[in-house]
Batch of 4 targets.
Target 1
Amino acid sequence: MADDALFEFLHMEIVALVYKEQATREDIDKERVTCVSTLDAMGFRVGQGMIERFTKDCPTFKDDLDLMKFLCKDFWSTIFKKQIDNLRTNHQGTYVLQDNKFALLTQFSSGKQYLEEAPKYLAFSCGLIRGALSNLGLESVVTAEVSLMPSCKFQVVIQKL
Amino acid sequence: MADDALFEFLHMEIVALVYKEQATREDIDKERVTCVSTLDAMGFRVGQGMIERFTKDCPTFKDDLDLMKFLCKDFWSTIFKKQIDNLRTNHQGTYVLQDNKFALLTQFSSGKQYLEEAPKYLAFSCGLIRGALSNLGLESVVTAEVSLMPSCKFQVVIQKL
């Protein structure tokens, strides 16, 4: 359906814009950090907004794992049109969410050819997870890892306060 | 549904980003023009991409009016979750599309209070229409007008080649 494409196209435009704007600046290293954090911050705010709409009629979660399951199913399906394929946890606040066909990487050819381009296209989604969790009362550090496109792993480490 | 919200939140982020980036530059007037054209260009590319997916299994259109009707119904519904409320034409290449509750303006309080903020939130959608039409072989000039939020009129003038 054309419906899913809207988010994918918009996301591509955002990444292109952020990197284009920064390309005019001098310091290359600083540049890369700023781009990732700009995209991450955008994702964070979108994640906050989305989860708020999403959970307004929801029961509360019985524990963190219950909440993560909700994130992997309902939240992920709404945004990326599929569920997370695999959720693992060490039961000590670390979760690994694996998506075997991550929507924002499917425009690339599969395999390792464009692997170095991947981080650009994951920063927004890391922020999205962090924003959603934050609005549900969990501060976290979220990182992403790709070893073979279009599969992707998000690692979420809950910060104990 | 939370589904519609994703596009609205992303659009807000894009507008904020484009205006923030430009706020660091000197010339205020030039600034405003650049922001609008950046947003319009992003909309154009998204419109092109969307209409391509959308029309790949579609019959061809019998005339421009037929095409505009498709844009007002199917295309608009997919993106903005409602149809255009009113379509008028002078049968000489000018079309006026009126949306009485335009999705990207509903976050504002109704009325005239934030009227001067409106153009920022219409540039992307003007580009979207222009991009969609362009991919269907019609070059156009698209402008938008708001007199009372959240209602909005888009004027499309088809350019004869």
Note: Chain A has one domain: 4-158.
Target 2
Amino acid sequence: MNFSSKLLEQAVLAFSQLPGVGKKSALRYALHLMDQPKEMTEQFTADIGAFRSLLQKCTTCGHLSDTTHCDICVDHRRDRQVICVVESIRDVLAIEATNQYFGVYHVLGGIISPIDGISPEDLSIDLLIERIEKSTVAEVILAIRPTIEGDTTSYYIAKRLEKFDQLKFSIISRGVSFGGELEFTDEITLGRSIQGRLPYDPNVMINT
Amino acid sequence: MNFSSKLLEQAVLAFSQLPGVGKKSALRYALHLMDQPKEMTEQFTADIGAFRSLLQKCTTCGHLSDTTHCDICVDHRRDRQVICVVESIRDVLAIEATNQYFGVYHVLGGIISPIDGISPEDLSIDLLIERIEKSTVAEVILAIRPTIEGDTTSYYIAKRLEKFDQLKFSIISRGVSFGGELEFTDEITLGRSIQGRLPYDPNVMINT
């Protein structure tokens, strides 16, 4: 595409570095900013600049934070005896959005994946062990994606934490999605879902 | 959505001001920047800031430009006797992408639309008249969208330019899209396409 303007071309290239943004969308974003007052773009770049330069990672759990400790870790209403171990910050936000979890988190920063060159040392597992040594933790929820790499990571963490006798381990339940049709569910999920079947009491609503 | 971080929330709000960007995509963009080195975000905000603060509009045609005159207006290979009148900068970019036009442009900055409160005075029509008075113009192409407002704008401009005897007017052809099926073409387009039928010579390729 010929933009007949270096400045426009630079802006389009900048926007198209964002995930899932092509040249056409990038151009649309740039022209939209041109249609708005200059102040809007100044605010836009200031907000994004401040976000990237000032945002930190919580030194306890690894979640995003405006200060050295994140809102979740300092919240006294959260149950610090339960730690939910997740792969990424995105997973924390996803679980928080459910409003169903009231413990704290531990962000690994990835999962063990020899193909991508990610070994256990690259993840914050030592930090997790330190946390458990220092405080009273009753349960560790391994909320890691149900893939071979994810299952390997869960297994590895459970093995490393075996020495803590008081610890209870759990994993998030796996099965057919809410609203999902059996016909279109893959065999592995459906198979696990039958193996992991739950007792049914017609008087108790499931998963609510 | 609860972000547990003011900085993240601000960045998400900033991104979601862009057209067609929802909260989920905005969050994805922000977290992507967090995964990259800080320098990438610094470059990103610098490029977009420079684009908005330095980019000008060509004082002749109204197209985007890094200087007071755009690349198209100063290009001596372009035919200045043919002016293509368009609604917006987006239209200039769309026509340029076809590589089929070698004249110059005039960007109106909108079309006449009483409902949206846009009257002829809001468009750069006086500037167009000035341009034609000052230089030798042989043809004005009215490349304005084929809607009631667009047709009104074309009609208004043609009327205002009537006094220039030497001027030839043309509009872009209208009809069935290349690859389009007659069955799925709306009645107005198909009707215009039959009214505006072209002589056919099997030895000459159409529109190439």
Note: Strands of chain B lie at 56-57, 64-65, 79-86, 103-107, 139-142, 168-171.
Target 3
Amino acid sequence: MGIQLKNKAMDVAMKIKKLGQDDPRRIIHSIKVGVALTLVSLFYYWKPLYDGFGASGIWAVITVVVIFEFTVGATLSKGLNRGLGTMLAGALGVGVDYLANLSGQKGEPFVLGIFVFLIAASATFSRFFPGIKARYDYGVLIFILTFSMVSVSGYRVDEFLTMAHQRLATILVGGAICIIVSIVVCPVWAGETLHNSIISNINKLANYLEGFGGEYFHCSDEHVTIPEKDKPFLQEYKVVLNSKSTEDSMANFARWEPRHGNFGFRHPWKHYLKIGSVARQCAYHIEALNFHLSPHQLQEPSQFRRMLEVPCKTISSESGKALKALATAMKKMTDPSPSSQLHLNAAKSAVNDLKNTLKSGTTQISDDISNLLAIIPDATVASILIDIVKSVEDLSEAVAELSLKAKFKRVSPEKPQLLHKGTIKPFVEEDDNVEAQQQPHVVITVKEIENNNDEDLRVNKKPGFLF
Amino acid sequence: MGIQLKNKAMDVAMKIKKLGQDDPRRIIHSIKVGVALTLVSLFYYWKPLYDGFGASGIWAVITVVVIFEFTVGATLSKGLNRGLGTMLAGALGVGVDYLANLSGQKGEPFVLGIFVFLIAASATFSRFFPGIKARYDYGVLIFILTFSMVSVSGYRVDEFLTMAHQRLATILVGGAICIIVSIVVCPVWAGETLHNSIISNINKLANYLEGFGGEYFHCSDEHVTIPEKDKPFLQEYKVVLNSKSTEDSMANFARWEPRHGNFGFRHPWKHYLKIGSVARQCAYHIEALNFHLSPHQLQEPSQFRRMLEVPCKTISSESGKALKALATAMKKMTDPSPSSQLHLNAAKSAVNDLKNTLKSGTTQISDDISNLLAIIPDATVASILIDIVKSVEDLSEAVAELSLKAKFKRVSPEKPQLLHKGTIKPFVEEDDNVEAQQQPHVVITVKEIENNNDEDLRVNKKPGFLF
């Protein structure tokens, strides 16, 4: 019994440790809440303050507990909502109470009752509007709360002006303490968190794509020796699939945040949702790809698979590298185009190779080809990989758009040094109409590469070292 | 200016109307909140009650505003959390205050300050545990709130036992009013909502699959005449992709709900999350399929496509019908196996046909086959459809498991009337090892069909009318 209890305690201690290690900001946040609450207790402990605010000081305590959230944006959003809701409702409560007073001793409860009902019901309904729900839900709740309190207790206590004033003042003090502690002591910015989580998601997709080729094409040995749990990249991308709700709320909170780090007040947070959505699209493709990696589908490669191996591996790894480049550029807040475009072009060129192989190479694999069924899994993988290049391109465009909107650093503003420019036409046959309509044309344009000091682009510094 | 204002007002009015029409429960909920708040105002209006509770009556108002949520489960969860949190924190507050008193006039604020800091920080940290976050987040918040209030104001007012008692009593009254109004007046059950939303999601997937064949295979005319917005089934399935967070919270709330309708107190709500996750898996496959339905990919069908048309259309529509049958069985809370198994078997049999066609039919399409690239899009569609049958099977198993756990009605308990039973072996060739490993074996087992009165199974009543 004693040992069991001890084990249980050890278990909980380990969980606590892990929770703290996974994200140390959690420990800091807990300490910050403790500090803010202890600070606000001064209202009760310190006599002069108590004399000023009276028993209303308790509202400062309530405010701190209720609005102190993990991120600055959430705290600001709740604080401003609470302040605004309280003020509006206070003013309306005074007005309604005045009206109710006019209707005499008997009529007063009825008039107040009708107003409470109407205002509570309509304000509650307004919370169903998506726009209000996303940004002002808490404000409307506080509005209903304060209005009911002011109008109802005003009927009894007859001093609600003092009450409203005290309540507002203590809320302001409580809110100010929260916001100051939240911003000054190791702030957790919703915007920065959103930025980093999008980057980490793109990196997870990249890791999968970089590892996929090796897993799918020569796996017989490796696959047995290295257990799947030592290849986390095969699972990690799955968190991207369900990332929408977190990103939505982070973006909502980020909009309340002031300038911080490299993020201005009007940083295009909404655009991150677009990037997130394109990243999910890419993750859906990877999910389809992953379906073809189940153990029983890995066996001796057929002739057909060996034929596809080189282009498919290139597509996969270059797509992964393009994503990595996008993530790095986002992290450094620089223009992503030069670095990611190189890998994207290499991936597109491999798509072209793959298509040409498929078009012309059937004679080499006549054994396989007589049984179309045997080649379908590999053909599907190839087809999904082609789709993935398309979605990596979309992601690249979305990030480039962000870099324009958010004014990411352009790489060196001096006169660009032209290294190489040209267009490689894709291989097109006469009888190719069907395919040409089905797949997007691949036109490889080697873009101007500018001379710059960016670490990521160092590989391009020697002219002619492009491919 | 006047006209603009009028237009704006009209716009808002239309939005309100739409919001109410989309889900009339929203209007009812708003009225319910109004009623509950007006009821609780009685504490202030009605003298005998006011004498009993004093100014603490305001806590009843606060409780109603704060805990009245859209669903019964959420209201119960918040109410119980609030009650429990208040009681625990009240008891702890009394204990801490007693300890602080022992340390004398000077030491008291320090002892209280230390306790407030420690308890607030550790309780805040506990909110990061996923298990606590999911079910007791609000309770911990209220715990911190009440503890701070009781210990801090106890130091000053020296009557916190009365305060704690009054606060608890008013919270109980406020909570009771909420819960009663929430349950008695047109209740919105989180459990029922979850049940219906899973059914509706499965139906959306089914609609897509039933419509896909027609869209993909003979679309040249139809596609132009019917604009995409008149085919909502092509878009509706997309909500399934991001359904996780809603389902998670619904399931959490449902666990607090008492028996309602056909759902017992221990209804396996958690299992709905499994069904939801399998449904999302199916939706990911459909997303991949949908990628091949983009307008520029629809043209004159090739020989190869015409060859695949019949089996692919059958797979798609039978999978859709199997899903429809699952949804219907869930709706009626009957055993889903008999009705869905028929369609699933038909789909599997079509998968077999498709595989045989692919294996043997290459000679007919020697024109196409010389250009493998041209057949890849159609081959991919076929391959995804085969994957979809697998995921429909998973979904069917998950629903069957639910029907066991939730004790859905077995179809007629009398002696089953055996109609037909047998096993059709799949077509297997000698040189088929690769494929046999790649694709799951298809063994069609015609199950015993029981005689019953279920509407959905009426088609099976005539013996021999099975296929």
Note: DSSP finds 20 helices and two strands in chain B.
Target 4
Amino acid sequence: MAFFCNFTLTQTTSNSMINQYIHDNKDRFINELLDMLRIPSVSADKKFKADVLRTAEFVQARLAEAGADKVELVETAGNPVVYGEKIIDPSLPTVLVYGHYDVQPADPYELWNSPPFEPVIKDGNIYARGACDDKGQMYMHVKAFETMVKTNTLACNVKFMIEGEEEIGSVNLATFVRENKNRLQGDVILISDTGMLGNDTPSITTGLRGMSYVEVEVTGPNRDLHSGLYGGAVANPINILCQMIASMHDENNHITIPGFYDNVQELTQEERAEMARAPFNLEKYKKAIGLSDVHGEEGYVTMERNSIRPTLDVNGIWGGYTGEGAKTVIASKAYAKISMRLVPNQSSEEITEKFKKHFESIAPKSVTVEVKPHHGGEPVVTPTDSAAYQAASKAYEETFGVKPVPVRSGGSIPIVAMFKSELGLDSVLMGFGLDTDAIHSPNEHFGVFNYMKGIETIPLFYKHFADMK
Amino acid sequence: MAFFCNFTLTQTTSNSMINQYIHDNKDRFINELLDMLRIPSVSADKKFKADVLRTAEFVQARLAEAGADKVELVETAGNPVVYGEKIIDPSLPTVLVYGHYDVQPADPYELWNSPPFEPVIKDGNIYARGACDDKGQMYMHVKAFETMVKTNTLACNVKFMIEGEEEIGSVNLATFVRENKNRLQGDVILISDTGMLGNDTPSITTGLRGMSYVEVEVTGPNRDLHSGLYGGAVANPINILCQMIASMHDENNHITIPGFYDNVQELTQEERAEMARAPFNLEKYKKAIGLSDVHGEEGYVTMERNSIRPTLDVNGIWGGYTGEGAKTVIASKAYAKISMRLVPNQSSEEITEKFKKHFESIAPKSVTVEVKPHHGGEPVVTPTDSAAYQAASKAYEETFGVKPVPVRSGGSIPIVAMFKSELGLDSVLMGFGLDTDAIHSPNEHFGVFNYMKGIETIPLFYKHFADMK
């Protein structure tokens, strides 16, 4: 009983100290994020290489200022990983924080209301590429850590692992993890790179889709041809590519690649009923993205189609004349970037192989095709009965006043599965973004409310996780 | 008898005078063409507007130097038409020469072995955008005219009408013709904007395909979306566009637009047998453009597919992320440029309307589509029993030593049909280019042999046409 009082007392004091510190430093916390958002760390495009490195150095400096030890940029075959740690007591649990400082390309630039790398705050939102994904959400952890250190309330050991290649498939992270197994030992991986259902409906992501991403090239004639002189007599690679892509979905929007669904984990009616309890308004959903109708696999509802079902989407297509006016040409080549989202228990490598085999098999003799695998990742489902999940749930409940809902997301964070296999650690996905944040789109933004809520909620997770271990 | 001797004498003398003059001025004739090829007169792209005008002025100046009267740039709503004439005797027949000084866009630039607007002569060919289509072939007429004037052998009145918008559908030429009916009166229209079967197999084009050119836009969500969070639940406009395009050909490569073939003129077995007599080697054809197999409409051979049958080809397609690396996005919009080649007796306007109606009708409710007509043109068949055709045939026979073969081309010169309807004049299509000249492609070229042969053959056409009228 005494212990209980004492505990609540400590808790109250520490909570109020934490909240006071956050309140006193709010403007600086925001301005530091804006500074980072000004650096265009687009990992997919080599011409931003120097900016990617500047961003890594920015994170490194802020981590050190926040109180981390052994802060360094660990070289990889690609962009460096920012590492830093604070070991206060080896007997305490250790939280391994993962995030990424690279961002998606910002094009099409013309659709942004303000330049993607000149952040502005409007109507309570920070607008910039990376505002939410993942600079904003990653930086909440740096500032929450600073808060715990400065208020002397850090309840766990912490290790930070902030990478710069998430948007290009974390191509070198598995190697980094393998080569640093000892220094990465811990009890849980904490990640904020997902979203919540809403500010009044906090949620924790308990499942993620995997991915297989390929680029295809279809070659017809060995040079561009005059569509008048040759039209009708030779294979037009664009028409052929369209036919090949079209054939990959049947009339029910099932994917036709042989064996594609072989290992797909079908949910039970109970599980689907449980999912259906999450608040969802189809009309609002359509209105938010300007759709007159949704579109997807027969036999599944929208929230299932974008989370527990695999997909095949063309992310980019190009070929022939795309300039102003009209050019009557038959292109020599046509290209597409195609990604498939995977669900348990599909294997990225296996699906990529099946795609390649199928794509080559359906190509008519009149063209040649090439399939280049880009990157992949495995799907995951994280446990909801773990101490980490319970601690996170409790933390959200305290800051939002509502118990968070567990949801399966359609997104992919391939490294979650890799962490499990390489380090034997589960991840807890404490996302504070919203679906409406337009990540990967023009006008990406992140609510100041969400950013600050994250900084408030994270210290509570540390406290509860320490208490429960 | 006396007349006959006298005639042959005159002919021989004039022929030798003409050949002497051409021989003496060959280098200058070539250099003047190279000068014109250095001006990038791309009509499809506004940024070349000034160069287009410079090219018009270049042609105007050369025509005047060659001896034309009343040379002027006639303004239109678009690029000016270069007009010039030489009326030597109202009782003589009048030849109306048509050509165009604008060229196709040169991209993709990286596939050119030498810059498209820095002409080079290699292995007897002039390499440059427009070398053949149509600057080279148009300029043959200017130099042939100069030759006839300077050697005092001009046998007909001449009128030149050289436009600057052929590659964008001659959008303002019909208006020009209507507004200049009087000054454009004549007996025949002479055009060199087509090809020959080979240097040892001269041919005259007696048929051309028409065209309907449209640009389509498919819109799904109102902004680009994250393919993880939305993939599978919303219509991906690129996938949908591919499905719509794919559905426009059936398994026999027949076009599925309702009513598309309604007015197509079917050739008789006799006509098809006659066509089949033109020299054609399928293996050579495939080898020349690097195809392992041809591809086209069931029931027709290659030479029919690219001349007497209508087509539907995607000339350009774009949407989503087309940059380096991978971006997991569902694009808001996808686009395609689509051209349909038409044959007698299809109507461009009617086909465009049918396409629009069909395209809109097959769009799923989950997307919105827009169809923008670009430009069109009507198919034509020109008579082979006319004095003009016979005069052209005789001219080729004298310079090539072989009687030319009449062929139907798959290309389109929409204005041929317009000239017939507006001026009541037939055209004779004296082409000197080859299918291998790569017009509309990188490394377009024109044989010096062909250029000079054209300059030699054209004066003979004038002579025979005058004799036959």
Note: Chain B touches chain A through 103 residues (CB under 8 Å).
